[in-house]
Design goal:
The strands form 2 sheets. Strands 1, 2, 4, 5, 7 and 9 form a 6-stranded mixed beta sheet that branches. β4 (37-38) and β5 (41-46) form a beta hairpin. By secondary structure, this protein is mainly β. The protein has strands at 7-12, 17-23, 31-33, 37-38, 41-46, 58-61, 67-68, 80-83, 89-90, 99-104, 124-129.
């Protein structure tokens, strides 16, 4: 299976972008490593309820993703979320509370709104990450 086969996605204009709308095959271990591209299209967003009741506990977000909508991880007992790139726009209810937010060394400014300062708003603990999966 190629990267992206586990995710349902829809195309957006401009035509080179794609958004994740759901999970086709739930992960048995709760770990989801979201690809930066699916079918040659850049993954730019995770939509509301995309991971609803998917059993997600650990999620890796590629640096291509720029937006995570409210309730994207609704019904999940997240323990860890790893960001591979810079701070992105996450709606205030994007994540359930009580998880650890990890910021990659690839993040150019660790004080951007989403990290450290905002982790508490999401009920999260902030932790630096060396970028290895």
């Amino acid at each position: 299976a190629k990267a992206g086969d586990d995710f349902s996605a829809s195309y957006q204009n401009p035509g080179n972008h794609i958004v994740i709308t759901g999970i086709i095959f739930p992960s048995l271990d709760g770990i989801y490593d979201i690809p930066a591209t699916i079918d040659g299209k850049t993954v730019v967003a995770i939509m509301s309820n995309a991971f609803y009741n998917s059993g997600a506990t650990e999620v890796y977000i590629p640096d291509s993703v720029k937006t995570i909508q409210d309730y994207a991880f609704n019904g999940c007992a997240l323990t860890d979320v790893y960001f591979r790139g810079d701070a992105i726009f996450c709606y205030s209810k994007a994540f359930p509370k009580n998880f650890t937010l990890h910021c990659s060394v690839n993040c150019h400014d660790r004080n951007l709104r989403y990290y450290k300062s905002a982790a508490a708003n999401y009920g999260a603990t902030w932790e630096e990450w060396n970028g290895d999966a």
